[in-house]
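[step 3/7] fold_predict: job queued, chain A
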Amino acid sequence: MRFFDSLPNLFYLGFYCPKDSGYFNEYSNTILELKDQKEDSINFFLKEIRNFLSDEDISIATVPSGKSINQSSGIRELAKQLVKSYSKFTDAVFCLERFEDSNGDRTIEKHLKTIKVANSSVIKNKKVILMDDVLTTGTSIQACQKLLLEAGAKEIKVIVLGKTIRNVEDAHNCIDQEDEDEFLKETIDKINSDYYSICKFYEMEKDSLKEEINTAHITVEEWANYQHGYVDPDDDEEHNSIKEKSQEKHEIIDEIYNEKLSEIYENQEKEDLCYEHDIIMESEWYQYMVHEAHRVLEGDSCTCFSVDNPFVSYFQNWYFGTYCDLLIPLYFKV
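[step 4/7] structure written:
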């Protein structure tokens, strides 16, 4: 579960492929059924959103439809159900109102002239999640963000059920052409840097241990010389006894050295295995993302956009910040 502050500024659950695109799929159909306020579709998206959204003091607002005569919509019914299922959410579902038809004009200027904040009290000084079913140009969302901020909203995050995409094959090709090494470079560089620091630490540990052992041997030699100095030079038995004790001490020191050195090597081997595991895991995560990305494009899944996926911001930037035909900013400047 994620709190508001950890959510991306703009969050897609999946893609919407229009019927005339040639790529219309089940997920796209579910969005259309939500537009018709079908209960099964509303419950489907309600479950998807509840899978990651935490209960906290935030307001839920929605983008109004293009028609002023009909303020009800599937996304608003979904938002109302969402508010009911959380104890701390504030109902701002009808906060934004379309008072004049947009007549198909999708410019931000038109939206700003035909939408108003009908009740600012439910969003003033509050964090707001703005919901919409489909994002095509993004201008209606930009307009609503601007209006909410001007009315006193503290911060806004956007959740969209589907980003409109027509050329799915190009998107598939873009995913397949992505360079794994380049994509993971920053993460792998960090792993390598950490591993280098760990290796350096263990080398220092070995040097430090060796220095301690050498000091211990010198101390034993000094002790033996001191003892010999107090014994009669002709007392061979006592001198031999001192030598034996000295030898025992040296052997104990060497045993301690070998034991501690073995521990260092053992720990270092564990770090080596962890390093290899981390590299493998990064590659496996990448392959998983690629697999899930293709599934989303086919409308089979929206799991790769789950905010519980640690790669969500990276993944969304991959889609919406890289390729010109999918270029949608992750943060609208209003």
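[step 5/7] annotate
Residues 4-166+302-326 form a domain with the Rossmann fold fold (CATH 3.40.50).
The longest strand covers residues 155-164.
exit 0
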